[in-house]
Amino acid sequence: MADKEFDVIVIGGGPGGYVAAIRAAQLDLKVLMVDDRKGKDDKPAPGGTCLNIGCIPSKALLDSSKHFAHVRDDYADHGIQVNDVSIDVGQMLKRKDQVVKQLTGGVTQLLKANKVEFVNGRGKLKADREVELTPHDGDAYAVKGKHVILAAGSVSFSIPNVEIDNEAIVDNIGALEFQEVPERLGVIGAGVIGLEMGSVWSRLGSEVMLFEALDEFLPAVDKDISRVAAREFKKQGLDIRLGTKVSGADVKDGKVTVTFEDSDGEHSETFDKLLVAVGRKAATEGLLDDDAGVKLTDRGQIEVDDHCRTSAENVWAVGDLVRGPMLAHKASEEGIAVVETIAGGHGHFGHDTVPWVIYTDPEIAWVGKTEKQLKDDGVEYRAGNFPFAATGRGLAMGHAPGSVKVIADAETDRVLGVQIVGPNASELIAECVVTMEFAGASEDLARIIHAHPTLSEAVHEAALAVDKRAIHKAN
Q1: Whether 133 and 250 share a structural domain
Q2: Is 196 annotated as a binding residue?
Q3: Does one domain contain both 266 and 314?
Q4: Secondary element (H or E) of residue 210
Q5: Distance between CA atoms of 357 and 360, rounded to whole angstroms?
Q6: Closest CA to 322 of 348, 296, 347
Q7: 452 is a catalytic site residue
Q8: I need a labelling partner for 57 at 20 to 30 A (CA). Which of 38, 134, 312, 383 fits?
Q9: Rounded to an integer, what distance in angstroms lies between the CA atom of residue 160 and that of residue 325?
Q10: From the candidates 78, 136, 351, 452, which is the catalytic residue?
Q11: Residue 97 annotated as lining a ligand binding site
């Protein structure tokens, strides 16, 4: 029998869970959130994979390594002479840990300030929205929720014959903790995690080889954009092997030998470290009791409708547990939409306007449809492209590779997709998302005055190019 009853119980404290809990508290609902993660100091560390071992620590390392690479490779062009530049890996990792600790501590304070009851431990959903709580520092007990939001996130995939020990063969967690720069780093998977972590250690001096089973590089991205990105990564020394299937990895004397097969047959390479970055899966293990009434899909995700309702009454699921991209901001917005629906409002969530970002250098960002998707769907469209190198700001920066591509409906001119590869792509995509949310046209982007000189002018000119009237390039 449940000891307490809450309006909302949230299982999982990542970007979907803690945001949902705070929003529910703002709406005067009685809220409990349970999250099992602890930090390196053995204290509660809400924030999920994103804050602890994903988005935030990886961006801290990406930023540190980018500064190092720019000092080493680019500053001389600006007249800045720096000799014998070196990297203190220990200090870089310390800074990363400080960033993580500050943010997870901030989430803890936000929960407290909003009067969200917080349990650091495990939560399991049982029948009739009863939740079994197992705190790290106490005995198990049961609580009941009028509504339950499942937000347990995801875990890394593994692959056959490659055993992760987070020493020689690592997942994304281990790749954040290398105590020194590996001379040679192998990466299985040339997706977001593989490219970002490969970039970090490549900038610091590691020889990086990425094995990608697919024949196409970044298939979710427009080909014009992925082609530019691939060219830049090659210049940076990333060796990306497409159409390559890894069959096994063996550790001997501290080295990892990877066996793989491509169109030329079977080969092997030896590395100091091997990162396995082949994707993630919904973290449903231990989350649901057999009588919880929540159905799973064939892919092991929780089955939900367009409003994140599960098959069990008043049980909801958000984020990496459900369909759609495994992105922190997607999880947060789903969590808010669910809570606002619970509170009697209209929870809006734009499934077609979720922006994606890869935080490499150059950054890659996109929203909406690619040309290939539109062709496959039989949609008539027009597209405009503009390079950052043709902008005054890009030229003044000294190195501004990449471009912006705007795709609009041929008849209505409504923006259907935008693809960006280049500096600050993660920030520039925002105005394109806003335009699409308001059903805007490429003409709207073309008519809006953009400050000069800025990188955002590339978005402006790409929109103009849709109608073949870009000013600063030949149409």
Answers
A1: no
A2: yes
A3: no
A4: strand 207-211
A5: 9
A6: 296
A7: yes
A8: 134
A9: 25
A10: 452
A11: no
